[in-house]
Amino acid sequence: MSNMKEININGAVMQCYPLCAAQKLHYYTIRYCPTQVLCIGTGLYIKQDVDFSVLKKAIYKAYEMFDTMRLRFVKDDNGDVYQYIVPFEERDIEFRDFSKWKEKDANKEMERWTAIPFERFNSPMNKVVMVKMPDGFNGVYLKVDHMTMDSSAIVGFDRAILETYCSMMYGTEVHVTSRPFIAQLEKDLAYEADSPAKKKDEEYWINEITKSEPMYTDFAGQGRLLTQRRENNNPNQRWAMVVSKNPQASISTYHLEEDASMRLMKFCEFNNVPMASLLLMGMRTVLSKFNDNEKDVSVKSCVARRGTLSEKYSGGTRVHFFPVRTVMEPEMTFLEGIKMIQREQNKVFRHANYDPIEYIMKRGQHWKYQPGTSYESISLTYQPLTINRDTPDMPNIPYKSYWYTNGVAGQPLYLTVMHRPEDNGLNFNFEYRSDAVTESEMEYFYYYLCRVLFRGIEDENRKIGDILEMI
To answer: 8 by DSSP, 3-state: which?
Structure first.
């Protein structure tokens, strides 16, 4: 089964394919948000003099390996969006020298680049710039469109550049592998064409939706829900409007110290629980605290969907978002709470290929709320990937990595937790919409999140009710 369609593009007939569900999710976002919301800007800089002519060759080589870097979009005569891959890439790669600049000014300039949207159709969906940074750091700024790459794909591409560069300079091996995108896309499209697997997933999600109505819990307390209940003259309203006409956003990053980060990681290892489950437990406990000790809490969780080798190495965007909903009694212990979240997450993972937009629409129809409303106020992505030095022949060079804000956001608050390259400590990156969250509210949320996590891990048999009182 193939949905392939041949479309004449500038005189060449190209094999074009429909969008998969993960891409549609992003395309859906730009109906409510400026298109720059899909721009992801990152920087990877190593503390070493770099031979930029060799680096340029390494970037071209990485372009060859990852065909999703050559992905384009096109509209057919009916206005439907398709995608195709151009066979080779001949764009020049710019070089910018920021070595005499202040680091924060250089980063500001790259944030400005990140806020410039791509031309959506028949045009490259990424931009790579070789950069000389202050303090002896040199490397690559990368801007990609989220419909073509997610963070796993970006890390893969960055690794390909770094390893190829080291192989050209020092003769080390390149360990990065890539798989063709179209082969994986065809599997996804076959799933979406009413396959038995999709029907099974749909049954699961409809059952979840119809069980009982969730409760909206806000990261800044009950104000938003109470106000909307008054405005809508609906004292029993359990959802809240979360989209906004003003999508302006910023990113604030909080650095958890190395030893504190290690304590969290050791706790996960010792109790055999995933870090994402521990973080979700922390977040749902804070949301409960801020909303009058509400027991029914939902957090939107990011599912990477990269279980098979083909999924892992085919680049592209594979992220789906689904709620992790838990109802916890105060007598439950911290560890029991984490285990409950882990069970819920595992169910989500098993059924995560389902189209998240279909899920949102079915939920809205069932509980009769309008588009743009939600039961979740915050999303979590835990990104365990760093370009770690698991290859023994890679030179041990200090490096820095950055995520640059594109200036807008579709959701009010989005937390990405990542490991720092220099010490493996955790960075908490909050992307927040300026009209929905103030910086002090976010700092407050982070402060309470840390309190919950460390109160919980110092005694995993501590009851949730006791933690709520202690913090």
So the answer is: strand
- Per DSSP, helices labelled H in 30-125 are 52-65, 103-114
**Full-model pTM:** 0.91
Q: What is d(CA 158, CA 411) in angstroms, rounded to the nearest whole number?
A: 27
One-letter amino acid at 42 equals: T
Residue type, 400: K
Query: Which pair of structure tokens corresponds to residue 102?
Result: 């202040």
Question: Which has the closest alpha carbon to 116: 147, 98, 143?
Answer: 143
The whole-angstrom separation of Cα 462 and Cα 229 is 35
DSSP secondary structure of 201-249: HHHHHHHHHHH-----B-TT-SHHHHHHHHHTT-TT---EE---S--BE
> Given its phi and psi angles, is residue 313 left (phi above 0), alpha (psi -120 to 50 degrees) or beta?
alpha
Strands 413-419 and 426-433: antiparallel
Q: Amino acid letter at 8? A: N
Q: Which residue has the higher pLDDT, 318 or 173?
A: 318
> Residue 35 has what pLDDT?
85
Provide the β-strand partners of residue 327. 296
pLDDT digits (tens, 9 = 90+) for 177-229: 899 999 999 999 999 998 999 999 999 999 999 999 999 999 999 999 999 99
What φ, ψ does residue 158 adopt, rounded to 5°? Answer: -60, -45
Structural domains of the chain sorted by starting position, each given as residue range(s) with its CATH number in brackets: 5-184 (3.30.559.10), 195-470 (3.30.559.30)
The rounded distance, in Å, linking the Cα atoms of 179 and 189 is: 17
Of 220, 247, 224, 218, nearest to 434 by C-alpha is: 247
Q: Which of 24, 375, 437 is nearest to 246 (CA)?
A: 437
Please give the structure tokens belonging to residue 116: 């410039």
Asked whether 430 and 442 are in contact (CB, 8 A), the reply is: yes
Q: pLDDT over 90 for what percent of the chain?
A: 81
pLDDT confidence of residue 358:
96
Please give the full DSSP string across 392-418, using - where no structure is assigned. Answer: TTS----EEEEEE--SB-SSSEEEEEE
Dist. CA 6–CA 347, nearest whole Å: 39
Say which DSSP state 193 is in: T
